[in-house]
Amino acid sequence: MKLHTLKAPAGNKSRKRVGRGQGSGMGEQSGRGHNGLKSRSGGKVNRGFEGGQMPLQRRVPKFGFKNPFRVSYQSLNLDKLAQYVESGKLGTSVTLDDLMIAGLLNKNEKIKLLGQGDCPKGLEIEVHAASASALKKVDEAGGTVTIV
Fold first, then answer.
1. pLDDT value at position 111?
2. What is the dihedral of CA 15, 21, 25, 30, to 10 degrees?
3. Residue 118 neighbours by CB distance under 10 Å
4. Whole-angstrom distance, CA of residue 12 vs CA of residue 109
5. 78 contacts 137 by C-beta, under 8 angstroms
6. Would you tell me which CATH number, out of the four given (3.90.920.10, 3.100.10.10, 1.20.120.640, 3.40.190.10), belongs to the domain 73-147?
7. Cβ(130)–Cβ(145) under 8 Å?
8. Which percentage of the chain shows pLDDT scores above 70?
9. Where are the domains of the chain?
C-alpha cells in the first residue's frame, strides 16, 4: 500500500464550494447565471408570484360559496333497484354491501333512495337517506327502509 493508491471511502463526498475563484469552476457567478432576482442572496419568490404581473389567483373572478360540510349522495331510483332484483343481482333483502357488490355504490359514497318507478314486493333495503315518495312506495309494497 502506497500513498498514491489510497482512495477516499465510498459515499464521503465533500460539498461544492462556490464563489472561490475561476479556477474552481464555480467562480464568478457561482452557478447562478447572470443577473436577476434569483442570482442574488435572499432572492426567493413566493408561490404564485408572476414577476409583478397580477397573479392568476387574483385575476380570476370569484363568486359563490362552497360549503365544506356538504354531504353528497349517490342517487338510486326504485325502478333501477327493481331491475336488479328481477335480474337476480340483488335479493329482496338489500344491504349496503350488496349494493357495493352489484356496482351501484362505491366504497366511500352515501346512497339516497328516490321514488321514481315501482317498488318490488316485500323489499327490505338499507340506505343512508330516502325521499318521502320512495318511503311511501316501499311501504305500500309491503317493504321496509332502514336508514343507516
1. 94
2. 70
3. 13
4. 53
5. yes
6. 3.100.10.10
7. yes
8. 100
9. 73-147
Query: What CA–CA distance (Å, rounded) separates 78 from 130?
Result: 11
Buried b (16+ CB within 10 A) or exposed e, 74-101: eebbbeebbebbeeeebeeebbbebbee
How many other β-carbons are positioned within 10 Å of the β-carbon of residue 134?
24
Query: Which residue type is seen at 13?
Result: K
Model confidence pLDDT, tens digit, residues 9-19? 888 778 889 99
**Entry pTM:** 0.56
d(CA 52, CA 40): 18
